[in-house]
Specification:
This protein has helices spanning 12-31, 35-38, 49-63, 84-95, 101-121, 124-128, 140-162, 168-171, 174-185, 187-194, 242-249, 266-274; strands spanning 130-133, 136-139, 202-208, 213-220, 222-226, 236-241, 261-264. By secondary structure, it is α+β, with helices and mostly antiparallel strands. This is Mycothiol-dependent maleylpyruvate isomerase metal-binding domain-containing protein.
């Protein structure tokens, strides 16, 4: 597979440490759920907590080479299914509704155990090889960082549904940092394409709290994430809690402009935040 850009080269040990840790966190969280919590609706349309776990099983099963199960209905006709990826995910979710929650948890543990073994044994050449990822052609390592992001987001979908947010002292862990790294990589697209920041704009997104970091995006013909603005001041600043940023970017929570502080060109900043949801 060819690509016009250089593949993203990521440290295999660091990414797998984050991926395996978030799998452990999800398994531990799920092990403590009662029947009501398993059935609790999430912010993802049509999905309960157990459906989120089923989705994760489906993705990792497909990465192991398993075939997508048939569905009992035409999933493409469901209101919350918007594309082929959504239809594929829905087939796994509906197919796994036939087993008990205890069996579902065991399936999750089994499939992630198999993936741990396969990923640990993967050579550096295969890790860095270009493949198709949800972000387009890139390294397999980038694909696995996307998996960290997806699993970490879904852990918080479960936590939100059952009212068990993670403590601040436990929030800034390797999986969270990798998830934010992956989201940062998309902020050029969000600021330039979705948010329509004009040419010459310098946008600084300042995340606060345990997930604190600053994401700088400069628009010069196209919007790109940069380390700094070369001595120039930002033309727009957006300041908000880091976890809130992830939930807005994932379309998991309604926007309240009162929870965001703006500086500089506020109209540009507000437009970017209003179009922050870029996740499929």
């Amino acid at each position: 597979m060819s690509t016009s850009r250089q593949p993203t080269i990521l440290d295999k040990s660091a990414v797998l440490t984050g991926l395996f840790a978030v799998w452990d966190d999800i398994a531990a969280l799920a092990a403590g759920l009662d029947d009501t919590q398993w059935q609790a609706p999430t912010t993802l349309p049509g999905w309960s907590v157990r459906d989120v776990v089923a989705h994760l099983i489906g993705v990792e099963s497909m990465l192991q080479g398993a075939d997508t199960p048939d569905a009992d209905v035409d999933v493409s006709a469901l209101e919350h299914v918007r594309n082929d990826i959504g239809a594929m995910n829905e087939r796994w979710v509906r197919g796994l509704r036939q087993i008990s929650s205890a069996e579902l948890l065991e399936r999750f543990r089994a499939v992630t155990a198999g993936r741990r073994e396969a990923l640990t044994a993967l050579s550096d050449d295969d890790w860095n090889a270009v493949t198709m990822t949800p972000a387009g052609p890139d390294s397999y390592g980038r694909f696995m960082r996307v998996r960290v992001f997806d699993c970490w987001m879904h852990e918080h979908d479960i936590r939100d549904a059952i009212g068990q947010p993670v403590a601040d002292t436990e929030l800034a862990r390797p999986a969270a940092e990798l998830a934010l790294d992956e989201m940062t990589a998309s902020m050029g697209f969000v600021v330039g394409k979705r948010g329509g920041a004009p040419d010459g704009a310098r946008v600084s997104i300042e995340l606060t709290g345990p997930l604190g970091r600053t994401i700088n995006v400069a628009v010069a013909g196209r919007a790109q994430v940069v380390d700094d603005f070369g001595g120039g001041a930002p033309t727009s600043t957006i300041r908000l809690d880091g976890l809130l940023f992830t939930r807005l970017a994932g379309g998991r929570t309604p926007l309240d402009h009162g929870a965001v502080a703006y500086g500089g060109d506020e109209a540009v900043g507000r437009r970017i935040v209003e179009h922050l949801n870029y996740v499929i």
